[in-house]
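Hi L.,

You mentioned the student needs an example of a multi-chain input paired with its predicted structure. This one should do, with 499 residues in total across all chains.
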Amino acid sequence: MDQNLVPVLDEVNAFLRKEHGLLVDGASVAAAAGGRIEVRNPATGQVIASVADADAADVDTVVASAHRAFTSGAWSGLRPADRERILLKLADVLEAHAEELAQLETLNQGKSIHISRAIEVGAAIEYVRYMAGWATKITGETMDVSIPVPQGARYTAYTRREPVGVVAGIVPWNFPLMIAIWKLIPALAAGCTIVLKPSTETPLTALRLGELALEAGIPPGVVNVLTGRGSRAGQALASHPLVSKVTFTGSTEVGKTVGHAALDNMARFSLELGGKNPMLVFGDVDVDKAIQGAMMGGFLNQGQVCAAASRIYIHRSKFDQVVEGLAAAASSMTIGAGMDLNAQINPLVSARQQQSVCRYIDIARAEGARVLSGGQAADLPGYFVQPTVLSNVDHRSTVVREEIFGPVLVAMPFDSMDEAVHLANDTPYGLAASVWSNDLSLVMNVVPKIQAGTVWVNSHIPLDPNMPFGGHKQSGVGREFGRAALESFTELKSVCIAH
Ligand code: NAD
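Structure written out for the whole complex:
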């Protein structure tokens, strides 16, 4: 037995063996047509479980469950303090099952068990506790108004924030549990009910989350989980007339389809989409810090991070040093399964994603890039790609323009602050960016000029539940986290009282 391999818990093996249905009204229900989807372990390519493959008829059933639960007031009618208490209980329940959830995620998504424990589960639990607190802090405003008729009448107006109704939460495969939680908890804090639709590749932790929500005391029907294909179940969910809000995280292409479908019903929507995020390394920065930052920002979760640092712009005075250091660090990374405690680079989520990333590396070569490290799939049974550093790329080349969503860094030099800002912004995306410098006036000059929803200085990637997160331009519409997230699950009602 390999000492570095984490032994799989019995409860994880038992969960994998279960005949998973859709979670509807608190019960597991088979898809009406009986379809199944196989779930694979990306480290081996082997099938480890199967889930129900919902179609449009199933979507009707699941949404009806969420709608009944909403209109019954079983959740929205609770005192805010009771919703808060139950959500805090959910955090405790998740914590009690933390290792089980982390292992399930690593076996299904491929990522390092360290990342599953610390981020997918650990940070997500912090998020639950943070957001639970908003349930008791939903407020409106009172307004003095000047309505002139009838003469002598007096009015007082105020606003109320009311839960929007049934929410569709559509989740990608890169952080399946954490992003499901980002959608679930503010919706519940606001008093909504929800249908969670995980990705076809990574449905397992969402199903377990639904079960644990019941265990925490959330009434049946408030949290429903719909497994199925995006083009069928996802599309039917986004366009369902009983859905009042769609919160989607995924690719820009699919996000636009989802946004159109929501708009057709005048459902509210928020879209967290792709990114092609620049990291600007100025000349005064310590080379080792810049290398460390790019490795963390670019290779975390094998680069399958919407906010990953993928375009590394380095001041020409430090370019060679940083790029050589990056190539050396990338070449020395240990490649292996997520359950291997020593592995630093783990498999991508699927064979399709592995092929897509390798195709981008081939395009880069054909467009004249130099491959300084990696550059191909690893010679292992699963969906591994070597950590890759590219230089000598043209600003207009495909790997600089398009989101790769894999362990590929593209390094380019710049000569001036204006050029760095221009290169950073010359992209269809605007999710995140980082600026690396200790020159205060330079930093304060650059930050307002960057077109991105989040700008980090001297770090890349940290997210906090209290910091709004979302995109400019093709990276999306709306914000997650903080008060902004909570309010996006409410309708604003004006009340005007004559007295
Ligand atoms: P995807 O767009 O292919 O799928 C996302 C989800 O949408 C999945 O659950 C999928 O089943 C569903 N879906 C697919 N087609 C649909 C349709 N027609 N109607 C409704 N739902 C549909 O994205 P992905 O490949 O799972 O994830 C990777 C993408 O997600 C990347 O582009 C990445 O940048 C983005 N992402 C963004 C953020 C962010 O916060 N901005 C976070 C993580 C991932």
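You could point out the following to them. The longest helix spans residues 113-132. The chain has two domains: 10-273+476-496, 277-464.

Best wishes,
N.
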